[in-house]
Batch of 2 targets.
Target 1
Amino acid sequence: MTEAPVKMRSRHVFKSFGATRVLKDVSVEVRDGEIVALIGPSGAGKSTFLRCVNNLELIDSGSVEVDGELIGYRRVGDHLQPLGDREASRQRARIGMVFQHFNLFRHLTAVQNVAYGPRQVLRLDRATAERRAAELLGRMGLAGREHHYPRQLSGGQQQRVAIARALAMDPSMILLDEPTSALDPELRVEVAGVIRDLARQECTMLMATHDIPLVEDIADRIVFMVDGTIVEEGPAEQVLNAPAHERTRAFLARMTSRNDAPA
Ligand SMILES: Nc1ncnc2c1ncn2[C@@H]1O[C@H](COP(=O)(O)OP(=O)(O)OP(=O)(O)O)[C@@H](O)[C@H]1O
């Protein structure tokens, strides 16, 4: 079987915030249609890495490419120059991002939240953008909630609006940052179901998560990161069942026992 083409490739990414070195030589590949789970303890740098892929943060050195295009910088001769605002937001618009705390506009309804990007960035007219938004909300099981404001929706429903919002831009890939971790168990199941459906539709996803059952369910590959460095990566089944590294084993044991603990 030939391997799918590479969708996202990071090479030797370093990122610091002041004196805090957060990413230290992170090289990751995500292939077209692949679901990659980025796992690891709190503070490992998972969110920061996703933010770098989406150009919400600029890396200090190394490179990130999506569909072969350099993210955050342009080459000028031998040098790299940070992109201007316009180019940076064009890149951001091509990569969907779903956040832990949904990040919906509070003053916009569900359908307006989903239609916002297509109207502002893709320049769709209002009727077309809202019709497409309503269709996507329907696919997320939110028919009838189109005109609700975020405060009138449960956390699970808000996260499904956020996923619809990401899909509305026809993204090249979707980054999910702890999409289920702000949710109660039953709402988590609801959102996990939507993410599982997307995985079946061969969306390309890179997801930072502590939700090991969701990882077991949908991930093709796992990247395990500790303290800004990748400790282990491989096919999900292999990493979950026979982790090669002691730190991966200890982390998974800790996470699994926490998930199995009575509520
Ligand atoms: N904007 C920032 N300014 C300063 N430090 C930051 C900033 N963003 C992240 N950090 C630091 O970077 C480190 C990694 O944070 P990050 O949120 O990427 O980790 P994480 O693996 O996603 O953790 P969690 O699982 O808790 O979400 C932490 O020490 C954090 O305090």
Note: The two ends are 44 Å apart (CA to CA).
Target 2
Amino acid sequence: QNDTIALTLFRLQTDTHGNLARNWSGSDACSSSWQGVSCSPSSHRVTELSLPSLSLRGPLTSLSSLDQLRFLDLHDNRLNGSVSPLTNCTNLRLVYLSGNDLSGEIPKDVSSLKRMIRLDLSDNNIRGVIPREILEFTRILTIRLQNNELTGRIPDFSQMNSLLELNVSFNELHGNVSDGVLKKFGELSFSGNEGLCGSDPLPVCTFTNDPESSNTDQIVPSNPTSIPHSSVTAAEPKIHGHKGVKPGIIAAVIGGCVAVVVLVSFGFAFCCGRLDRGGVGSKMGSVESGLVGGGEGKRRSSYGEGGESDATSATDRSRLVFFERRKQFELEDLLKASAEMLGKGSLGTVYKAVLDDGTTTVAVKRLKDANPCPRKEFEQYMEIIGRLKHQNVVKLRAYYYAKEEKLLVYEYLPNGSLHSLLHGNRGPGRIPLDWTTRISLMLGAARGLAKIHDEYSISKIPHGNIKSSNVLLDRNGVALIADFGLSLLVNPVHAIARLGGYRAPEQSEIKRLSQKADVYSFGVLLLEVLTGKAPSMFPSPSRPRSAASVAVEEEEEAVVDLPKWVRSVVKEEWTAEVFDPELLRYKNIEEEMVAMLHIGLACVVPQPEKRPTMAEVVKMVEEIRVEQSPLGDDYDESRNSMSPSLATTEDC
Ligand SMILES: Nc1ncnc2c1ncn2[C@@H]1O[C@H](COP(=O)(O)OP(=O)(O)OP(=O)(O)O)[C@@H](O)[C@H]1O
């Protein structure tokens, strides 16, 4: 009842255009007829208030008694006064107040909002310093304070381990931005503050007497020019591109980024082999030695020698075996192809190879170390893999078997993996993965795995390595299951240890892959897509815990066993808490998310026999209807210009 009184007061104070009066009928805010208001069914308290763009004008004071409020979205109104009243709402997690006329300072007791996940106060008139107490948010993912009138020294955001997105641009802040912080959040997050300094492109810091403190030196830019405003017009993700990949271009260290993209001549990589191997490889040295060695020309010629000698020495049996009616290219074409390393997995290294015809692109997995699999067996397994054709399973186009080399040639999928979409670049420039896309990716992956299980229902061949990095996206954003059949190549005794899929509990005893364990892994994948948390497959209990990071680690530990964490949160009544905060921006999807959550939880029941089959999972996912794209209600402008399903993300 008190919440109803508080909201009624809020309406009377702010609803100058009568927008709320029209939409709030009845005398109970929790009666579900109050638009934009959601309550907890058990406590009958207001937990969500979502009233964006309603021309509300007035203070926030009456909201201070809503101490069960978790989600507050009042962006794009004309609200004024201070944000201080909200510090009483100690359950707040997601606060969107951008685009109002809020003024005053951010109070020091903002630290009472310990559960804050996302705080957006951008585009207001908030002044004063950013209080150090903000560093006490241990679960925070996003802080947006851009376009205010904040002054004083910038807090040491490097202490906020959980923070993924920070924007303090266009304020009047000063002080040193550490190198790590600048790199993590990107220069655009600090632009428009003439007093900030640090490493390039910020001006270099010099030390002068601090006018604010007689004891300490103030750090000021040597030449106070902020990052040019012209570079700040669009918050686009940075694409560290590498156009025109040529054979022989060996390594490109992408500007300031931890990830190193290695571009190798595939032919070179293939022919050179490993240092410790015999044959052509040992003649040429290792790929690594090639990396450090001479220039492009030299490597190109090395490649030429190696490629030809190996190709011509290939026996009739050591040839590319295609699963397509017409042979598309020769081994020699593959050896000549320009190649780019896409990544290393548990069984080998994958290269993108662009053939000289300029139109054929394939992904080539070069299996690592002497695979014990004899030729006959290998060929049989390839037959099994190559036979399976389905729109949601990555197609094996061809393979090559020689004593020293085993290559698997797959169709190339240009849009990365579900893993990189979910977890890549959670910082600034992150392209959110919307609900419609997530549902369609989960459905595609479910169909692909169901097909595998159905095709091999008698022999019960499992996939054995279901995880988000093995769900790839084609050019239309359709999800495909990768790496089917590779578990066959691994000694069953070591398969679980060698493959990195999400493990089912029974596998700690019965060390065997199975289709039921695939279902469990798929359940974990669903939970990963719903929560946005990456399941950690190999928890290390001995991880050192510093006092300062205990709280953050507790949060992280929740992801070690994703099913366990989800179960525990759901039990505590607040289901919405499990979902990826990124999804909370979309409207009217909660029912679908909860339905999907139930499917995920059904897949991860500890008893294998109680898990559904993948065919049943497909049916259940198909029954979750997405009537309309939630994008229509999206209020994140950064997404307007891109196609979410095809959005690729950089890892760095
Ligand atoms: N057909 C493909 N098209 C495009 N990229 C691919 C293809 N197959 C694999 N990749 C990419 O190559 C990289 C390495 O893949 P790989 O399957 O070897 O490793 P992984 O999935 O990380 O681990 P695992 O070996 O356990 O499956 C990944 O980044 C993956 O997205």
Note: Residues 209-219, 223-316, 537-559, 626-652 have pLDDT under 50 and may be disordered.
